[in-house]
Amino acid sequence: MAPEQRLSAIKGAKVLMVGAGGIGCELLKTLALSGFQDIHIIDMDTIEVSNLNRQFLFRQSHVGQSKAKVARDAVLKFKPHISITPYHANVKDPDFNVDFFKQFNVVLNGLDNLDARRHVNRLCLAADVPLVESGTTGFLGQVTVHMKGKTECYECQPKQAPKSYPVCTITSTPSKFVHCIVWAKDLLFAKLFGDKNQENDLNVRSSDAASSSEHAEDVFDLKKDEDIEQYGRRIYDHVFGYNIEVALSNEETWKNRNRPRPIYSRDVLSVKLNQENGTVDKNFVADESDPSSVSAMVSLGLKNPQDIWSLMENSRIFLEALKLFFVKREKEIGNLTFDKDDQLAVEFVTAAANIRAVSFGIPLHSLFEAKGIAGNIVHAVATTNAIIAGLIVIEAIKVLQNDTSNYRMTYCLEHPSRKMLLMPVEPFEPNKSCYVCSETPLLLEVNTNRSKLRDFVEKIVKAKLGMNLPLIMHGSALLYEVGDDLEEDMAANYAANLDKMLSELPSPVTGGTILTVEDLQQELSCNINIKHREEFDEEKEPDGMILSGWTQAPTKEKENNNISSDNGASTSNASQAVTLEIEEDDDIEIVPTGTENVPAGKKRKTSDISNASTSQLSSIADKSSSKKKPEELDDDSDDMVMLDNGNSDISKKKRLQ
């Protein structure tokens, strides 16, 4: 296309950007400077201090304001004559339906989570609008193009599942520091400062409590008139001492494992915290209006977050942080959830994880390292975001020119490969087994006599298929539907169905049943074949149902990420798993496992991908969905998922001709 025609296509295009974070800021700037005249931006987030080091459109004065609106105002200062329409909203809101998407020539994603990416992918398919997807993590990045019927859709290939850990590993047999972090964050912190009704394996009663009365009080409750320092030591002794002794009583568990050692406060701390070595900062006064200014490190005079604390220092931080929560932030107790931007929470979790690590013979980590693990952070690099934003615009221009033969999926590498840092490969045709764009039936193995419709809706339809407003049918019988326009009696009937076993529904679901599941907002429909199965392994199959034929990859073990799937005996009968999800920024979802043998501009071959070295591309377990919930993922971290070298689906993919 001639330069004049290209410029005309750019100026006449109506573009939708989803995400105004790390990639989004660079992308909006690049679009404006490239001549685009009509740009719409959707982003539900507000600006945080941690965004300012790379999201260059924002300043300190913008903290707390809408990212989409501030980004618009910033760009209009140097490009005042273009139209930028911001939406401070969730892209999954009903207003952003298929008709809304149809008005655009191309959609450009700079999102931070799998759930939203899948949602946009489905709306683009339904609206028949091209999608340019992107992601970065540290020095790595990628840009992919998705066109209905011509290239694979975003969901044609596997996505990594969030890393989950069996409760028995977390509570009884941790072998890596990440296990200690999950224990401290998701169990201990939640028990002490979150919902008091939460049940977990920390509810083992101490011998003193058990003998005090027939109905012993919860050991984690602060007793009336109990001194806060005494309470802190009681909690310390219970979780690091008594609970370890309980675990040691199960001899079978430790036949082939190193035995942990109980740790009691009396063995570590011989004097009160505020009398030791004179290191307390007596001049420290917390800002009462800013809970985030409360810090155990500052209170105890510890300054460097990259220092690895001793057992005594960790113990002091643990007790001081617990005390500060009850003294300075008492009103928040009962409603707190872990936030990596909450300094006191990070200090508490770091100290608790390190004390537990000492008990189990696991190497200690600094607060800086522990925060990265607890928040699942891979620090973003502004240069990578800028490179990826430029590549997005290049692909968007090709889309506007309908230059199908030159579409490229481009990967940004950390180190040169064949003297290249950018590796372009041709996209593949749609995967014929993709349930999203090819409508291939799925298979669900489930015990139809024990599983409720609610389990099916929550664990399969929403969690795995990513549907927001599902409708479930068995033949012509409507089993479940949600929506504001439902009549009260119908809504009551569907709600009642949720608590019925599948085989007891008005139209029974048994082996051989075919269910149709639809999401009217996404205009997505798929069929699920039901296969009755009597038994499931509670440890390996905690959901009690297995979905086959969808495109989420099994979790891949990576030793260098301190991730383990070791299973061990538990002191309780808990069978659920604790999930650790990555908090993402502009994250990578699919990256080929090595690209050293793929010449630039050449068609991508299975052998090039599957046989190449994986040394450049590290794998970090995905938050989709996290947990922190997907819509709330932080802009300091990015996530990448890799295709498994042995994935048989890859070998069946066809190159786009």
TrEMBL record:
Domain Ubiquitin/SUMO-activating enzyme ubiquitin-like: 444-536
Annotated PROSITE patterns: PROKAR_LIPOPROTEIN (PS51257)
Subcellular location: Nucleus
Oligomeric form and interacting partners: Heterodimer.
UniProt biased composition (Acidic residues): 632-641
Primary localization class, coarse: nucleus
Extent of Polar residues compositional bias: 561-578
Organism phylogeny: Eukaryota, Viridiplantae, Streptophyta, Embryophyta, Tracheophyta
GO cellular component, one term: SUMO activating enzyme complex
Residue ranges occupied by any THIF-type NAD/FAD binding fold domain in the UniProt entry: 4-435
GO biological process: protein sumoylation
GO molecular function: ATP binding; metal ion binding; SUMO activating enzyme activity; transferase activity
Span list, region Disordered: 535-657
Family statement: Belongs to the ubiquitin-activating E1 family.
Domain Ubiquitin-activating enzyme SCCH: 327-371
Pathway: Protein modification; protein sumoylation
Keyword presence, Metal-binding: yes
Keyword terms of this UniProt record: ATP-binding, Ligase, Metal-binding, Nucleotide-binding, Nucleus, Transferase, Ubl conjugation pathway, Zinc
List of residues binding Zn(2+): C153, C156, C434, C437
Binding site residues for ATP: 19-24, 43, 51-54, 67, 112-117
PANTHER family, per database record: SUMO-ACTIVATING ENZYME SUBUNIT 2, UBIQUITIN-ACTIVATING ENZYME E1
Catalytic residues in the record: C168 (glycyl thioester intermediate)
The name this protein goes by in its record: SUMO-activating enzyme subunit
